[in-house]
Every structure is written in structure tokens, then in C-alpha cells.
Design brief:
Elements: H1 6-9, H2 15-31, H3 34-41, E1 42-45, E2 48-51, E3 54-57, E4 64-69, H4 73-84, E5 90-96, E6 106-111, H5 118-132, E7 139-144, H6 148-151, H7 161-172, H8 178-186, H9 195-200, E8 204-210, H10 218-221, H11 232-241, H12 250-257, E9 273-280, H13 282-295, E10 299-310, H14 311-328, E11 336-345, H15 360-371, E12 378-384, E13 396-400, H16 403-409, H17 414-419, H18 423-430, E14 433-434, E15 445-451
Parallel strand pairs: 4-5, 4-7, 5-6, 7-8, 8-9, 10-11
Antiparallel strand pairs: 1-2, 2-3, 11-15, 12-13, 12-15, 13-14
Length: 453
């Protein structure tokens, strides 16, 4: 089981609905397990290495190496190591500091997230060193997944690691989308935006990754080893749009404003040999949750796999849909389940000097709880599929139409907690916080709401 505190979650509220929701989440996470999916993609039979529609003769390859960084990188690397065995020359991957796991042939190092750390910078230098020694016959299996931007920082000349940390901090609290954030980070880096692909040339690159961005754009998912669609102009535009241009360090402004065409990120592959495979996405997770709930005889529908917006506002909308179903049997008839996948965000004002702990999925849960009809049986679960929602050790939360009444009995003001961006403490006290630890996957956020008869 991914959910570690199931007993606590099921000992109050709408127990039957909560159990169905937990099982739906379990089904979703199993479906997007990168380890199993990589084993389906990659095989070694009779001296032939098959990766999707690519076939490589093992005896004609030079060194086979695994490189990568990210929240879903370890299970991909583990699967590849098991498949290739002695044929794997070596490898180097970077994971979050709380992932205490190792591999036999691939070195696993730990770094900071979501803000870049010195350990991540040192690890990035090691990866660049490995890539710089490539030969034409070599094969690099690249497992860059969500979180790699923070885990593998390699600032461009003139930009310090501390400056990179500061601009990342500002962007994360600004309400900028991940595409916008990455447009800035890629143009402050020596490895992002396809920079590492140029270093690896002339060897062949095969990207095996997991999508953590709406629409599955490769240059936002595994950007060190693919071409980039963003520009220096886009990076400047992002900072100006979110009123950050005057707040970022001067080195960042100098880098972006004075860039030359030669400093632009990779725009075409040319002679580079790059193949890419996305093994898991939020669509797959949403479909798995839907299928499970259908098996439980809910009218189960996926409303969107492109959910975006500020968590609180999105939560109010999701709650209004539940109310409409509960009262009028539309757009679905009870018992009903609707699934949304994507990525909401929390915007914390710089002027707000004090705020507590929370995350987008937790705030989404709190907002839905505030607006659910208490005279109907409704429940919802909201998680970040990587197991870490925002800067917390919680995956998300589960709430139902009894949550507000439960909160009143415990003297918990969920509305006030939401205003202060301090929902984690409240959700823990309610027994509604979800704990999974690292799930080994990362396909954004999942929201599932069920309405009973």
C-alpha cells in the first residue's frame, strides 16, 4: 500500500467513501509505477537491446551509461540496471535527500529540493564530467524526471548558486506555471535547455521519463537532453509578468538581458542522436482511478487532465460540481465520481511575512471541504502523486461532508488556516492528512470526488 496511515483516515467521517477513494488512489499510483513501465519498454534478448522501437546490438555498442535526476528517476534506473546487468558500464543519478536507496552499478547521490543545494551542484558537475568523455559508439540512457531542475543545478557563468536559489524561491511563490518557471531556469543554466545533450554528443541518447507537466512537453520534463521551445525573451517576460524583474539578483538580470544568440538554448537536434519515451503520465493515473471507481458502480468520469489554477479557487469550483450532482443529478447521476488531474498552485504574497505549512493539494482539499453540502454524502481525495505536496512530508488530504462538523468539535478553523496558508497542521489534527512517503513516481496532482446516493 502506498498510503501509510489508512487506519487513521478510515476511522472517522464517510468511511465507505473514504475507502473507495484510497483504493482509487492506490490503483492510480500502481498504474504509473516507472519501474514496471520501464521493464515493459526495455528488454535485452539474444544480444539485442530493445527500447521501444529502437534496437541496438549490444556487441556494437561502446559504454552503456545511465544518468539522471528527479523524483521518478530511481525506479527507472533500478529497472535498467536489472535488465542490463553486466552490460551496463556505470551510471550516476541524483535523488532527493530523503530517498535513502542505492544501486549496484549506478551511483546514487542526494541533493536538495525544491531549492537547489551545493550537493546538487557538485553532483551536476560529476554528471557533466561523465558526459564529456562520451564516444560515438556509447549509449546514454537518460532518466531526467520532475524535480531535476532543482536537484541538478549548474548555473551559467556569472550566476552564483545562491542567486539561482533566490530566483527559484521567488518563482515558486509567485504563482508562475511550471512552464514559466522552467523558461527562466533553463536560461540561467549550463545543462538545461538541451545543454547536456550537446555535451553528450556524439553518443546516442535515449530519454526514459515520466511526465509531470500538463500536455507532456518534453522540454519541460527532461529538458537537459532535448531541444527547448522557450527563449531568453520568454524568461524575461515571465519575471516581468509576475512582478519579479526588480526583485531578482542583478546577475540574473544581466544574464537574461545581455544574452547573445550563441547563448540561446538548443533549438534543433542537427546531428545529435536523441530518442525519447514518456512511460507514465497523469492521463494514465486518472484512467486507473476512473476504472476502479467504475468497478465500484460509480458513474465515473474524467473531467480534465489539464487542471490548473490557484488551489483555493479551483477547490470552490470542484465543490460546486459536487453540490450540483448531489442536488440535481447533473452532469452525472448519483452515485458519481469525477476525476481531475493536473497541477494547481498556491500564491503566497511576499508581503506575507508569516505563513505556515501546506501545499497545493492540501489547500485544494481544505477549499473543497469548506464548500461541500453537509446534508449529502460526499468525499474527496487530493494528492501530489510524488508523495510530497509542497514543502511538506504529506502527499495531500482526504475530506468529506462531515469534515467541517468534525473541525468544529475540535475547535479547528479550516477557513482561517487556509487564509494563512497553514492547512497542514489542521489536516493532521483532523486525521485527514495523507502520508505515503516517496512514491517513486511523479505525474502531477490527482483530485477525485465521489458523491453517494
Amino acid at each position: 500500500m502506498y498510503v501509510k496511515n489508512t487506519e487513521e483516515i478510515l476511522n472517522h467521517g464517510e468511511r465507505e467513501l473514504r475507502r473507495d477513494l484510497i483504493n482509487a488512489i492506490e490503483a492510480a499510483l500502481i498504474r504509473v509505477d516507472p519501474y514496471d513501465l520501464t521493464k515493459r519498454l526495455v528488454s535485452l534478448v539474444d544480444g539485442q537491446l530493445r527500447i521501444g522501437d529502437n534496437i541496438f546490438a549490444i556487441n556494437q555498442l561502446g559504454k552503456i551509461r545511465v544518468i539522471g535526476a528527479g523524483k521518478a528517476t530511481y525506479p527507472i534506473a533500478r529497472a535498467v540496471e536489472e535488465i542490463l546487468g553486466k552490460h551496463l558500464s556505470d551510471g550516476f543519478i541524483i535523488v532527493k535527500e530523503d530517498e535513502a536507496r542505492t544501486l549496484s552499478r549506478i551511483k546514487v547521490v542526494h541533493a536538495g529540493h525544491p531549492l537547489p543545494s551545493e550537493s546538487g551542484f557538485k553532483a551536476a558537475q560529476e554528471i557533466v564530467k561523465i558526459c564529456s568523455s562520451s564516444e560515438k559508439e556509447d549509449l546514454f540512457l537518460a532518466a531526467f524526471t520532475g524535480g531535476c531542475s532543482a536537484l541538478m543545478p549548474f548555473p551559467a557563468d556569472g550566476v552564483s548558486l545562491e542567486d539561482k536559489r533566490e530566483v527559484t524561491r521567488l518563482l515558486l511563490g509567485s504563482g508562475a506555471t511550471i512552464r514559466e518557471i522552467n523558461s527562466v531556469r533553463k536560461h540561467l543554466s549550463r545543462t538545461k535547455g538541451g545543454g547536456l545533450a550537446k555535451t553528450i554528443s556524439p553518443a546516442t541518447i535515449v530519454n526514459i521519463t515520466v511526465s509531470d507537466v500538463i500536455g507532456d512537453p518534453l522540454d519541460c520534463i527532461t529538458d537537459p537532453t532535448v531541444i527547448d521551445s522557450s527563449t531568453f525573451t520568454d524568461a524575461i517576460g515571465t519575471l516581468r509578468k509576475h512582478d519579479l524583474w526588480d526583485s531578482v539578483p542583478s546577475s540574473v538580470k544581466n544574464r537574461l538581458a545581455n544574452a547573445t544568440p550563441a547563448q540561446e538554448t538548443l533549438k534543433e537536434y542537427g546531428d545529435l542522436r536523441v530518442h525519447s519515451y514518456i512511460v507514465a503520465s497523469n492521463v494514465m493515473a486518472a484512467e486507473a482511478a476512473r476504472d476502479y471507481l467504475k468497478s465500484r458502480e460509480y458513474d465515473s468520469q474524467i473531467l480534465t487532465t489539464s487542471l490548473e489554477g490557484e488551489s483555493r479557487e479551483v477547490g470552490y469550483v470542484l465543490a460546486s460540481i459536487a453540490s450540483e450532482i448531489a442536488q440535481n443529478d447533473r452532469p452525472m447521476k448519483k452515485p458519481a465520481a469525477y476525476i481531475c488531474a493536473g497541477e494547481t498552485l498556491v500564491k503566497v504574497k511576499e508581503a506575507m511575512s508569516q505563513h505556515g505549512l501546506g501545499g497545493p493539494s492540501q489547500e485544494l482539499a481544505a477549499a473543497v471541504a469548506l464548500r461541500l453540502p453537509m446534508n449529502h454524502r460526499v468525499a474527496g481525495v487530493f494528492i501530489d502523486t510524488d508523495g510530497s505536496d509542497g514543502p511538506t512530508d504529506l502527499a495531500g488530504a482526504i475530506i468529506d461532508s462531515q469534515t467541517m462538523k468534525h473541525g468544529e468539535a475540535l475547535h479547528i478553523d479550516l477557513n482561517e488556516s487556509l487564509k494563512k496558508h497553514d492547512v497542514s497542521v489542521a489536516l493532521k489534527r483532523l486525521g485527514d492528512a495523507i502520508v505515503t512517503g516517496s512514491t517513486g513516481t511523479n505525474v502531477m496532482d490527482l483530485a477525485v470526488v465521489v458523491v453517494s446516493r
